[in-house]
Design a protein that fits this description.
The chain has helices at 33-37, 44-52, 66-78, 127-142, 176-190, 214-238, 246-251, 293-311, 331-339, 367-375, and strands spanning 3-5, 10-12, 29-31, 56-61, 84-87, 99-102, 149-153, 164-165, 171-172, 199-200, 202-203, 242-244, 261-265, 269-274, 386-387, 394-396, 401-404, 407-408, 414-419, 425-426, 432-435, 446-451, 454-459. It has 460 residues and is α/β, with parallel strands linked by helices. It has three domains: 27-311, Rossmann fold (3-Layer(aba) Sandwich); 331-375, no CATH class; 386-459, Immunoglobulins (Immunoglobulin-like), CATH 2.60.40. β11 (202-203), α6 and β12 (242-244) form a beta-alpha-beta unit. The two termini are 29 Å apart.
Length: 460
C-alpha cells in the first residue's frame, strides 16, 4: 500500500499557532508569511531606525527579483514612511532617511547600471562567483557604505529542469551537490571576518511554474523545489541564520488563511507539494516578475519586518503612544516628546515619531500628541509572560533537535512542556527544549511560559 510521505528522515512539527516571534536580534530568525501578517505591528521607531541608519540591502537576482524591487517601490508609494531608493550603482545610492537597495555586484571595477541581472553564476555557484560576492562586500566597505543585508534572489534555478549552473558553468538540474554548494557559500560568507558587517541571508526559491512545464510542475519539479526549500530552512535554523522564506510567503493566500498544497504520487509515496498560491497569478500588463502586485507587496512587507529585526526590534507588538520602540509607554517616551515639544518639520528638534495626533500626524508636536502618549501610559506587554520566539518546526531523525523558547515577563517566566513526544525535555529556567527524534512523523508540542502575572502557551 502506498503511503503519504513527508520528506524522508525529516520530522515536520505542524505549526498551528498564530502569534509567535523570535528571540533577540543577535539570534537567527525567519521572515515568512507570519512576518507579512505582523507587518502592521512593527513599532514606528524601528522603521525610522532602518532609514536613519541608512541600511543598505543588496537584493540581486534575475527576473523574479523584480517582485521585491517593484513591491517595495509600490509600498513606498502607498505610505511615505517606507521610502526607498533602488539602483544598481552604489555610487548613486546616496539618499538619507531612506531604505537603500542595491541590485548589482561590483565587477570589472564597476557597479552595475540600469537593471543588472545577477544569476547564481554571479553569486554562489562557482568559486569565481563566490569571490565576486565577497569582493563586492569588501568594495562596499571600502567606499564607506557597508552592505547591511545581502540576499540572492532565486529564479527558476531549482524548479525548472536543467536551469542551474554547476561549478563549471554547465547547466544541470538542481541536485544535492548544488544544494550543498549554496548552503556552504552562505555559511562561508557569514563566517568571513573581513565582511562580517554584512548578514548573508538564506533564501528559499520561487515555486511558480510560469509557462515552462505544467506537467512536471505538479510532479517531479514541484517536489524538487518543495524538498530543497525545506533543506534550506533546516540549514538556516541549524546555523542560527536569518532566513527570508519567500516560498512560504507565496504559498499562503493574500489573507494568510490558506496554503496551496498539491499532491503527486511518484509510485512510492504521495508527495505534498507547496507551491505559489493562485492569488498571485500575473494578469496581463503586470510588471512584477512573473507575479502580481499582491505578491510584490507581501515580499516588501516581509523585508521591512526582517530589517526591523536586524535593526534591533525584538518582535514586540506596537503600542500607541510608544515612541522609543520598546512597546510600552513610560517616562522615556515623555522625555522624547519633551525634547521635540512645539517642533515642526525642518526644525532641529523635529521627531516624526512624536507627531501622533490627530490620526497619525499634523506637522507639530503639541498637547494632542502628549494626549496620545498619556492614553498609553504604562501599558506594559512585559508584565504577564508572553512567548516571543518562533518554534523550530522541523527536525532530522537521529539528530539532536533544539528549540530555545524565549518569553518576556516580569518577573522572569519559567517554562514547561504541556504536550510533548517521548524523550523531549525543557529546562524550566532557560526554556531550552532538547530532543532526539527517532521516527518520521507529525508530533504535537505545547509549551507554556508562566509567571505570577499570567501564562502563555505555544502550540506547534
Amino acid at each position: 500500500m502506498r503511503r503519504r510521505s513527508r520528506i524522508p528522515a525529516i520530522i515536520f512539527l505542524c505549526a498551528i499557532v498564530a502569534q509567535a516571534y523570535c528571540g533577540g536580534s543577535n539570534q537567527g530568525f525567519v521572515a515568512d508569511h507570519r512576518a507579512v501578517r505582523e507587518f502592521g505591528e512593527i513599532p514606528g521607531h524601528w522603521i525610522e531606525k532602518v532609514k536613519q541608519d541608512r541600511m543598505l540591502v543588496q537584493y540581486v537576482g534575475e527576473s523574479h527579483s523584480v517582485q521585491l524591487h517593484r513591491g517595495i517601490e509600490t509600498l513606498a508609494g502607498m505610505d511615505p514612511n517606507y521610502t526607498v531608493q533602488i539602483n544598481s550603482n552604489l555610487n548613486i545610492l546616496t539618499g538619507t532617511d531612506v531604505l537603500r537597495v542595491l541590485r548589482s555586484q561590483h565587477e570589472g571595477g564597476n557597479w552595475g547600471s540600469g537593471w543588472s541581472p545577477v544569476g547564481e553564476e554571479d553569486y554562489w555557484a562557482n568559486e569565481t562567483a563566490r569571490l565576486l560576492t565577497e569582493d563586492s562586500a569588501l568594495q562596499a566597505i571600502s567606499q564607506g557604505e557597508p552592505i547591511s543585508v545581502s540576499i540572492f534572489a532565486w529564479c527558476w534555478d531549482i524548479i525548472k529542469p536543467g536551469a542551474c549552473y554547476d561549478e563549471n558553468n554547465v547547466w544541470v538540474t538542481f541536485n544535492d551537490e548544488r544544494r550543498d554548494a549554496y548552503l556552504h557559500a552562505i555559511a562561508r560568507f557569514n563566517n568571513n571576518p573581513n565582511i562580517n558587517r554584512t548578514i548573508f541571508v538564506y533564501h528559499t526559491a520561487v515555486t511558480d511554474d510560469d509557462y515552462f512545464n505544467p506537467v512536471g510542475y505538479i510532479g517531479p519539479d514541484g517536489w524538487r523545489v518543495t524538498r530543497y526549500n525545506n533543506d534550506i530552512r533546516v540549514a538556516a535554523i541549524a546555523n542560527d541564520g536569518v532566513l527570508f522564506d519567500q516560498a512560504d510567503i507565496e504559498n499562503w493566500n493574500v489573507d494568510n488563511t490558506e496554503q496551496r498544497v498539491e499532491y503527486w504520487d511518484d509510485g512510492e509515496a504521495v508527495r505534498e507539494l507547496y507551491l505559489k498560491h493562485h492569488d498571485y497569478d500575473p494578469n496581463d500588463g503586470d510588471d512584477y516578475g512573473h507575479a502580481n502586485s499582491a505578491l510584490g507587496l507581501r515580499k516588501a512587507k516581509a523585508l521591512w519586518w526582517l530589517l526591523a529585526r536586524v535593526a534591533g526590534w525584538d518582535g514586540c507588538h506596537a503600542v500607541e503612544g510608544d515612541v522609543t520602540g520598546d512597546c510600552r509607554v513610560d517616562m522615556l517616551d515623555y522625555a522624547v516628546i519633551a525634547k521635540a515639544w512645539q517642533a515642526s518639520p525642518g526644525l532641529p528638534n523635529w521627531d516624526v515619531l512624536c507627531d501622533l495626533a490627530p490620526g497619525g500626524g499634523d506637522g507639530v508636536i503639541d498637547l494632542r500628541d502628549l494626549g496620545v502618549v498619556a492614553s498609553g501610559w504604562l501599558v506594559d506587554p512585559y508584565g504577564s509572560a508572553v512567548i516571543t520566539s518562533r518554534p523550530v518546526t522541523q527536525a532530522i531523525g537521529g539528530v539532536a533537535y533544539v528549540y530555545d523558547v524565549q518569553a518576556t515577563g516580569e518577573p522572569d517566566p519559567t517554562y514547561a512542556l504541556v504536550v510533548n513526544p517521548a524523550g523531549m525535555t525543557i529546562d524550566p529556567n532557560s526554556g531550552l527544549i532538547e530532543w532526539i527524534p527517532v521516527e518520521s512523523g507529525d508530533y504535537d508540542v505545547v509549551v507554556e511560559a508562566a509567571n505570577s502575572k499570567g501564562s502563555d502557551r505555544q502550540e506547534f
